[in-house]
Amino acid sequence: MTDDQGRKRRAGGRAGMKARAGSAAIEQMPWRIPLNPDRPTEPLDAEGVQRVHKAAMRILSEIGIEFLNPDAVAHLKKAGCIVNGTNVRMDEDFVMEMVGRAPETFTITPRNPDHEIIMGGKHMVFVNVSSPPNAWDMERGKRSGDFETFKEFMKLTQYFNCIHVAGGYPVEPVDIHASVRHLDCLHEKLTLTDKVVHAYSLGAERVEDVMEMVRIAGGLSHSEFDARPRMYTNINSVSPLKHDFPMLDGAMRLAKRGQPVVVTPFTLAGAMAPVTMAGAVALSIAEALAAIVLLQYIAPGCPVAIGTFTSNVDMKSGAPAFGTPEYMRATQMTGQLVRFYGLPMRASGVCAANVPDGQAMWETSNSLWSAVQSRTNMVYHAAGWLEGGLIASPEKFIMDCEVLQMIQRYFEEATFASTDDDLAFDAIRDVGPNGHYFGVQHTQDRYQTAFYAPFVSDWRNYEAWQADGSVWTVERAHRIYKQILAEFEAPAMDDVAREELTRFVARRKQEGGAPTDF
Amino acid sequence: MTDDQGRKRRAGGRAGMKARAGSAAIEQMPWRIPLNPDRPTEPLDAEGVQRVHKAAMRILSEIGIEFLNPDAVAHLKKAGCIVNGTNVRMDEDFVMEMVGRAPETFTITPRNPDHEIIMGGKHMVFVNVSSPPNAWDMERGKRSGDFETFKEFMKLTQYFNCIHVAGGYPVEPVDIHASVRHLDCLHEKLTLTDKVVHAYSLGAERVEDVMEMVRIAGGLSHSEFDARPRMYTNINSVSPLKHDFPMLDGAMRLAKRGQPVVVTPFTLAGAMAPVTMAGAVALSIAEALAAIVLLQYIAPGCPVAIGTFTSNVDMKSGAPAFGTPEYMRATQMTGQLVRFYGLPMRASGVCAANVPDGQAMWETSNSLWSAVQSRTNMVYHAAGWLEGGLIASPEKFIMDCEVLQMIQRYFEEATFASTDDDLAFDAIRDVGPNGHYFGVQHTQDRYQTAFYAPFVSDWRNYEAWQADGSVWTVERAHRIYKQILAEFEAPAMDDVAREELTRFVARRKQEGGAPTDF
């Protein structure tokens, strides 16, 4: 079994981890949970926020949401909602009462408690690219996702301190049968990384298996697992106006065990949502709140968050576009609404570009800055996403991490502090009109940490860059990606937990894994 | 004379302009002066703004600024400043009194009054790349600037509606002798474009020549020229703490004729300025205010603006870095100070990258978004800049214009409007849970203008992109640049003005142009 071989190799290497710390492929920022100090950008005025809120409430009370899950419908019927078949309508008072039960902030603690994340407030965490069916890199071009590539991305996810969460599968490993894919993937995720992981809500068995694996990997009893968030799921509505069976089923299973659920409608303006951005946001908010109401009813106070995935189609091709001006405003407006409801928020780092070039980076920059501007707490797809989510790219992963590190540095108070030391009046007087600041004590005391230090950007002049081979950014990123993989060492793991995890996977595979309908 | 040939060819083509309007290389946004609706990002609290202000005042009153221009010193002495040789100290009351004379907003009207710009308030205009000594494109690589390349950039500047100002020379045409370079360059600028132009403050003769050429090109009498801003200059201090002779001379000449002066210190933290960003900003503000005080004293109420060019060095190479987190915060802090003084503000679209790749675009995006966040009124180098300003690139110009258009679209209220029409409740009800929005009337009525339409971004999926040749962004930009040049038609120009301009250039060349010291 390739898993076991991989495991043994990693286990053997653990002792060498600290010794090799000096030979890192890059110098990167230490782990931290960034705090976003900026006041959010607010395209809507207070009345505008109320108008979008009221539109969402009218959608919920007058149109209703389809819940394609009989348990969910039964719960909501019991709660007093108006039920017609799968259509459920709920009024504003009930919605706001249920939303009021949800915590504004919560933590998620992975098997390494040093990598605990905080969801809510001014905290912001970055999640790797999740769910592309394909991979692209400079050597191999575009190809279907496979398990080896999945592992590569897990290593990048663990390596970068600016990636806080090992989210969904960075590529779908189609070379593993769907019945056992979650077992192999989570085994790798829980051994190659020690960060927060996610369960796809794709059927009861998968969800239960992942919860059990997270519990085992953390060396936790069942009650310890249930006591606080240890993992999470992200569910999407089927816009417009629908929640499907497995997503609701998974969400309810997690909520009942106190594990967080992020609800992220995919409302593409002009396709599954109104062509107008405020309308697409209102629909998205209504769909998200509908699921959150259900979860708060069955598990009062369970941790939830609202995700936004509102963008627009390309009116020429019908393809989704990302990182557009409309995307940015939709993200900002969603942020205003989510703060109105007092919930944590998820957004994304996204682009429509097919390769990691200029377009990829301006679209990604647009989306990441709109995440900052909307005070997003969890940024999905923050590293590695291409082609509207159909491709995961390691070069893009490396390039995105540079941007993420710059955002983390941008948040640091040192960049805008105005103490007497920062204002440097004495240094200005001492240097005078004919001097240079490089040699003065004020500079010498601070220069090593004064500025962001890049790892893939090349700040040398053209001639130095040319003499070194005229290497464009994507090629530099490729080299770094290869070097990181070559040097990678898996994080430490308790041997008992590791062995129990491997036994669990073996047993569940023998049992056939999860049922598949194909 | 190549000038004349160029002129005649263009003159002959004018009639065809409108007829060929349908065969444009790209579909672009119409001309507009964008209005930035966002509340600025404010890293400093009110006390922080006061602290930076007071530090700048202490620099001006306790350390003083070197004015390497005897006329300037004489004026300031007469005004009551404390003068010691070239060192001039001024107190806060005097500074604030002089700053109070400057208008918060002003216009600049070029020869085509439809291309008038507004400086101040929420208005934002974009200026082409200015002053690189070199050019780079995909075919020819890096090479020294020349006149043919200068003309290419003038055509791009005129072509794009999102470029509002034909600023400095996009490349320095070193194949023209410095004594007559300004004559040839301004002749091309004033015939190939009809947008606001700029005079370099590099000696009395050059400044006077450019003012005269702008007057002639506009068909204006001397009093009509003096009556309102028709052009502008941008001066840089010699940081730290100095203003040199020609810059002050040019600035005073323009101010006396009511033409705007932008004062832009180049305070590179860790080199010519303190390593701390607030200190670098305080120094920059002090240097900028010193020149503005002089101008307001000699020409009360003359239009001025504060520019920021505060960034940091790369502590590894000493090279300037751009679009860094520190650069963004410096720009935002400067915006807060400039608004405190009630003046218009200039910033830039900049990067350290050597080629128009991913790094170029994330650095440029960082700088452009910080311009938005600081409510900058005039964005220099908004299209075409590479290698910290040492290279102008046509591909980068094209790529940047996509980002600029997206910023313009981002500003449009349609992206965040929340009227009943925008909230689209009826459409959401009518489409219901099983429909699609593409066909409904609400979409059909709006889809043609609902979303930003790109011209160089490729939003097709990978397979369509691959079937079309797998063309990366930089190559697409290269093709568009070539196509724009091939189709370019100069703007209409009054024949009398054109002939007078040509005669003026010929006469001044015969007289030897401007003196040079080499």
UniProtKB/TrEMBL annotation, chains A, B:
<comment type="similarity">
    <text>Belongs to the trimethylamine methyltransferase family.</text>
</comment>
<keyword id="KW-0472">Membrane</keyword>
<dbReference type="InterPro" id="IPR038601">
    <property type="entry name" value="MttB-like_sf"/>
</dbReference>
<feature type="transmembrane region" description="Helical">
    <location>
        <begin position="288"/>
        <end position="309"/>
    </location>
</feature>
<dbReference type="GO" id="GO:0015948">
    <property type="term" value="P:methanogenesis"/>
</dbReference>
<dbReference type="Pfam" id="PF06253">
    <property type="entry name" value="MTTB"/>
</dbReference>
<keyword id="KW-0489">Methyltransferase</keyword>
<keyword id="KW-0808">Transferase</keyword>
<keyword id="KW-1133">Transmembrane helix</keyword>
<dbReference type="GO" id="GO:0008168">
    <property type="term" value="F:methyltransferase activity"/>
</dbReference>
<feature type="region of interest" description="Disordered">
    <location>
        <begin position="1"/>
        <end position="23"/>
    </location>
</feature>
<dbReference type="InterPro" id="IPR010426">
    <property type="entry name" value="MTTB_MeTrfase"/>
</dbReference>
<feature type="transmembrane region" description="Helical">
    <location>
        <begin position="261"/>
        <end position="282"/>
    </location>
</feature>
<keyword id="KW-0812">Transmembrane</keyword>
<protein>
    <recommendedName>
        <fullName>Methyltransferase</fullName>
        <ecNumber>2.1.1.-</ecNumber>
    </recommendedName>
</protein>
<dbReference type="GO" id="GO:0032259">
    <property type="term" value="P:methylation"/>
</dbReference>
